[in-house]
């Protein structure tokens, strides 16, 4: 066990043989203001001359206040393989207690970051070079796609037929990529410190160069709408400040989409749903091994976890491929693999690369608000 100051291993000798154990129930009494302990496990070691293996009862939780913990033996038991019902009442009591303490709440995000930094010269931007390489090795590798055809919402104003033909040629050659941020279209920007923020929904078309670099060919900062002229297209041959401003808007939108979708939604919020559902329904039996498909289907706690995760935690995600029940060992293995990947590799891929780019994204998210910081 450990608290914030120390780690302690406590040994207690029983005066007599305890027999086969299904539960241990340690009691904690509240004595001091801050006396919470994190208990890893309780291990029952068989004495000399006693047949049988040592038994471990996993806990892995903070023990606070006054109360009694009910810990089950660590190899795991389900309702299906325990027809005598020995575990039913303690598990029902534990689940009911957790339902009182755990709930899925709406998450409100309020950004309090505000930057008033002014850059006075284009040389200050020499270190900012937005290109496709940053979309592959940067903080948000989820947005870049190989173009199989020109996007329908990429509209070419009159006089840009040559550019359209060039892009079509790149599509046919398999060298054209796109970064589409149209998901941001229609999202109302926040007001921070009485200052209205702004969002763009860019579409960027990028070409693979002979040296392997992926560079932008054209940037469209807003979606076309019926009854209005086509949105302007920004090109590398535009005036340097204009092209720089377009790239700043793209970087700002990339930061917004990365944090909202790739990082927060696909990472933290999905992982939180998984974690809360495990804590509510199956925390005490996550080390189970299911030997048959029938054992999987017959585990009511496992099925409840899966159903609540999909229908409540993910707001009815069965239409997006999430199951509401688990019918086989293979399906359980696939689902758990998805959960583990989401909480580890998926989150790491969009989190660990933020150090060098997120601060820039926060600064550029105010692009246009202050007249591009005195550069107009």
From TrEMBL:
Pfam families: Lipoxygenase, PLAT. Residues 136-280, 281-376 form the Lipoxygenase domain. It comes from the Eukaryota. This is Uncharacterized protein. PANTHER family: LIPOXYGENASE. Transmembrane segments: none annotated. The keyword Oxidoreductase applies. The lineage of its organism: Eukaryota, Metazoa, Chordata, Craniata, Vertebrata. Its cofactor is Fe cation. Keywords: Dioxygenase, Iron, Lipid metabolism, Metal-binding, Oxidoreductase. Residues 1-77 form the PLAT domain.
């Amino acid at each position: 066990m450990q608290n914030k100051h120390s780690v302690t291993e406590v040994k207690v000798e029983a005066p007599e043989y305890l027999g086969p154990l299904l539960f241990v129930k340690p009691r904690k009494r509240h004595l001091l203001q801050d006396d919470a302990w994190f208990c890893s496990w309780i291990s029952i070691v068989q004495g000399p001359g006693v047949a049988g293996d040592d038994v471990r009862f996993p806990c892995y939780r903070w023990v606070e206040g006054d109360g009694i913990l009910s810990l089950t033996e660590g190899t795991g038991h389900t309702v299906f393989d325990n027809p005598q019902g020995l575990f039913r009442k303690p598990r029902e009591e534990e689940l009911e207690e957790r339902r009182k303490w755990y709930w899925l709440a709406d998450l409100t995000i309020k950004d309090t970051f505000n930057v008033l930094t002014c850059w006075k010269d284009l040389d200050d931007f020499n270190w900012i070079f937005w290109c496709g390489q940053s979309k592959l090795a940067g903080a948000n590798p989820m947005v870049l796609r190989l173009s199989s055809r020109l996007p329908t919402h990429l509209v070419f104003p009159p006089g840009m037929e040559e550019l359209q033909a060039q892009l079509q040629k790149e599509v046919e050659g398999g060298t054209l990529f796109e970064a589409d941020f149209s998901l941001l279209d229609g999202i109302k920007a926040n007001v921070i410190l009485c200052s209205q923020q702004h969002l763009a929904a860019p579409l960027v078309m990028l070409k693979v160069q002979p040296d392997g670099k992926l560079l932008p060919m054209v940037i469209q900062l807003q979606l076309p709408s019926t009854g209005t002229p086509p949105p302007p297209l920004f090109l590398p041959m535009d005036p340097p400040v204009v092209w720089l401003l377009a790239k700043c808007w793209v970087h700002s939108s990339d930061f917004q989409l990365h944090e909202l979708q790739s990082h927060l939604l696909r990472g933290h919020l999905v992982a939180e749903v998984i974690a809360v559902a495990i804590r509510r329904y199956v925390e005490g039996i996550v080390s189970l091994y299911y030997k048959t498909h029938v054992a999987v289907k017959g585990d009511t706690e496992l099925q409840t976890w899966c159903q609540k995760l999909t229908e409540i935690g993910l707001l009815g995600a069965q239409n997006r491929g999430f199951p509401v029940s688990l019918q086989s060992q293979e399906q359980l293995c696939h689902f758990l693999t998805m959960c583990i990947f989401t909480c580890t590799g998926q989150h790491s891929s969009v989190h660990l690369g933020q150090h060098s780019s997120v601060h820039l994204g926060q600064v550029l998210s105010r692009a246009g608000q202050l007249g591009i910081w005195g550069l107009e």
